[in-house]
Every structure is written in C-alpha cells, then in structure tokens.
Specification:
The structure is a single chain. The protein is mainly beta. The protein has a single domain, classed as N-terminal domain of TfIIb, CATH 2.20.25. The protein contains one helix and seven strands. It has a four-stranded antiparallel β-sheet with strand order 1-2-3-4. The chain has a three-stranded antiparallel β-sheet with strand order 5-6-7, with no helix packed on it. The N and C termini lie far apart (38 Å).
Length: 88
Amino acid sequence: MAVPKDLIEIMACPLCKADVRHRPEPEAILCTRPECGLVFRVQDDIPVMLIEEAQRPCPGCGAQREWDEKNEAVRCAKCGTAYRYERK
C-alpha cells in the first residue's frame, strides 16, 4: 500500500510550502520547488515530513545540505549554497 493520492494532494513542503509529489521507488515525498528540493521518507505508508529528517540535496552540487534550525535555512558546506524560505 502506498501513500494515498488524496493525501499527497493536500500536503505541502514544511520548509517552503510548495506542492509535493510522490516517488514510488524508493518511496518518498519530494518537494517540487527546485531551490528547496527536500526529500521525505515514507515509513509504514506514513510520510515523515520533518525537515530535520529529510534528505536535503543541494541543487548546485548534489551534496547533502545541513539544516540550520536557528535561521530556518538549509546550507551546503561543499559549495556554500543556502536556501531560506521567506514569507512575503
């Protein structure tokens, strides 16, 4: 059993609030905003939508970015790319 489609349709990325999509293999929930690009695992058919536990691939170099909770941003130590969602 997979994550229900109707649930995915109402979900959003917890960092940037963009829409998400389902990846079947390996099962994950993906943020659709390229600058953010967080990847959330699915455990026992339940999406784990925690930024701290997400994969945070850098759009610039592909390295795993670190979560800076204080500044609510993800930063890449390898290339220096940072992404912080700012509400307007």
